[in-house]
């Protein structure tokens, strides 16, 4: 099985951790979505300024292009993809993509973000992200996982939802997985 997955959601939901773990389980390529942001986006977020759509389109195009590059061997990306229009942009460029959403309470998100060191996204932007989040519709066939569960349990939930063709590959935990992106951080 090959294809593309995007682990989506607001900051602090565990996108990168889960995306890496799914990539390892499947033996697929991991893409750190934050690496696809242009430096100007990182600077805005670091300053506590929410991104506008004109900031997001180049980022989303970069995520989609990177996914498309690896879709034949399988790729898992972390990317907020908060709105349907953002997910549609990624799907337009990489039609074989499915989205995975770790569901986490706002209190847990705040606690996680407050405990992170060295990350550019401040807790002050969490409310704007939560307000922007459009939950995937049934027609999107997104996979919801319990974001408060262990990473291993979240991976199990995601792979189970993907079905029998997404069996974890044996021995992949030691495979090197690299991030890919066009932006600089």
Can you offer a commentary on this structure?
The chain is an alpha/beta fold. It has a single domain (4-171), classed as Rossmann fold (3-Layer(aba) Sandwich). The chain contains 7 helices and 5 strands, in the order βαβααβαβααβα. A 5-stranded parallel beta sheet has the order 2-3-1-4-5, with helices on both faces. The longest helix has 18 residues, at 53-70. It is globular and about 45 Å long. The protein starts with a strand and ends in a 23-residue tail after the last helix. Mean pLDDT is 80; it is low at 170-185.
Helix content: 40-55%
The pLDDT mean sits at 80
Radius of gyration: 15 Å
What assembly state would you assign to the polypeptide chains in this entry? single chain
Number of helices: 7
Q: N- to C-terminal separation? A: 32 Å
What is the name of the CATH superfamily?
P-loop containing nucleotide triphosphate hydrolases
CATH class placement: Alpha Beta
Derived from helix and strand composition plus strand pairing, the structural class reads alpha/beta
């Amino acid at each position: 099985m090959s294809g593309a997955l995007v682990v989506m959601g607001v900051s602090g939901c565990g996108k990168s951790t889960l995306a890496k773990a799914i990539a390892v389980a499947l033996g697929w390529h991991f893409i750190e979505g934050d690496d696809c942001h242009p430096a100007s986006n990182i600077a805005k977020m670091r300053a506590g300024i929410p991104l506008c759509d004109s900031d997001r389109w180049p980022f989303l195009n970069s995520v989609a292009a990177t996914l498309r590059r690896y879709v034949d061997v399988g790729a898992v990306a972390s990317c907020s993809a908060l709105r349907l229009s953002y997910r549609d942009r990624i799907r337009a460029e990489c039609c074989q993509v499915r989205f995975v959403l770790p569901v986490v309470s706002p209190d847990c998100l705040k606690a996680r973000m407050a405990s992170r060191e060295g990350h550019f996204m401040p807790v002050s932007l969490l409310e704007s992200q939560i307000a922007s989040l459009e939950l995937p519709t049934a027609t999107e066939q997104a996979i919801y996982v319990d974001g408060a569960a262990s990473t291993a349990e979240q991976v199990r939930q995601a792979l189970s939802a993907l079905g029998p063709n997404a069996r974890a590959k044996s021995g992949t935990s030691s495979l090197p997985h690299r991030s890919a992106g066009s932006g600089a951080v």
